[in-house]
Amino acid sequence: MTGPPVTALITIDTWRLDHFSASHTPRLWALAGEGERFDSAWSPIGLTSPSHATMLTGLMPWEHGMEANNHHGYALSASIPRVMADDRWTDVAKGAFVSAYPAGPEGGIDVGFDVFDGPDAGERAGDETVGRAMAWLPDNQGAFLWVHVYEPHGPYEGTGASDVERYAEEVRKADTVLTPLVEHLVARGSTIVVAADHGEVLLEERCGRQHERSTSDHVLRVPMFRWTPDRPSQVYGGMTGLEAVPTLLKGGMPQPGAVRLAESGICEAGCSPGCRPEGVLGRDRILVKPSGARAVLRSGVIHTHGEITAAEVAALQAIPAVSAPGQPNLESLRQLGYSEP
Fold it and tell me: Could you write out the DSSP letters of every residue in 43-72?
């Protein structure tokens, strides 16, 4: 035993569901096999800041208001309760260690943490982030910990001959750098929730690496699981989403939904023909059903694929209009390869 149990949220940026496997992520796959795996978990958006805000608040982007990345000019209001504000974590240390600017602290994601450690711009290596987190973890006190690694996000490093090969290398690296932390948390009998904020486009669409512009399954379906020392292993197939993360951290179980609502993070007509206006105000909205049927709302027009009811179309149309961004951080946008709003 190396200390009291920890409640830990581990997030891997831009991690595709089809790269959650024994070959791509051996340590995390083994941990999930001993825990509760959610095979139909969905992100609400293919952008880092709003999807993490959803995991910390249990709200969708159009509910919590952080509707694109912090460097696009969006922020999470300090008045919105975060999961770590729950009474069960009143007397524990609360620390966040993130690997890229879009995960905070700019934009209010840092509110509620005693320690928030992240780069002032761009990104840093996951092993540095993990090392800082492990050095901070108290050995005589419980803790609420969030650790975020950015390796799978492009541009991909590695020796592979293609983006596809280098992306897979980045995913394996994320698993490797997280392994010491996972072993430490398991030894402490912790509650561990692991999730991706969103996936990635490789060769499936007109523009590669376009997760922020896409509402495809390989962007919005994400790996998610929970490990605790006292719950039986199980695989859940019902549709759920990243808004269930606070429930999982508290020890509860999400109720599967009949539909999923989600949106793209930005419009670039060259990649998503017909979307408008360009930028963060021109996003697509989607509704997906367990059957695979979906409705897409693009530029005011509904496109349906499979059986969609009038009530489901109305639910999609009821998502509020996207709020205008504040002042963007243009240097951070350039460093990380995002489009300006």
Answer: -SBS-HHHHHHHHHHS--HHHHS--S-GGG
Contact 219, 17 (CB under 8 A): no
Which residue type sits at 81?
Answer: P
Query: pTM, whole model, 2 decimals?
Result: 0.96
Does 130 share its domain with 110?
A: yes
Residue at 51 is within a domain: yes
Residue where a domain terminates, one of 197, 227, 258: 258
Here the CATH number for the domain that contains residue 208 is 3.40.720.10
Question: 272-299 as b/e, with b when 16 or more CB fall inside 10 Å?
Answer: beebeeebbbbbbbbbbbeeebbbbbbe
Task: List the structure tokens of 200.
Answer: 């990635």
Question: Of 194, 226, 258, which closes a domain?
Answer: 258
| CA dihedral over 26, 27, 31, 34, signed as positive or negative | positive
Q: Which residues pair with 234 in a beta bridge?
A: 36
Q: Which pair of structure tokens corresponds to residue 334?
A: 């350039």
Residue 232 lies in a domain: yes
Together in a domain, 165 and 226: yes
Residue 297 lies in domain = 262-336
Q: pLDDT digit string (tens) for 60-109?
A: 999 999 999 999 999 999 999 999 999 999 999 999 999 999 998 889 99
DSSP-H helix ranges across 143-288: 163-187, 217-220, 245-249
How many other C-beta atoms can be found within 10 angstroms of the C-beta atom of residue 320?
Answer: 9
Walk across the sheet containing 115-117 and list its strands: 115-117, 93-97, 143-149, 6-12, 191-196, 224-227, 36-38, 234-236
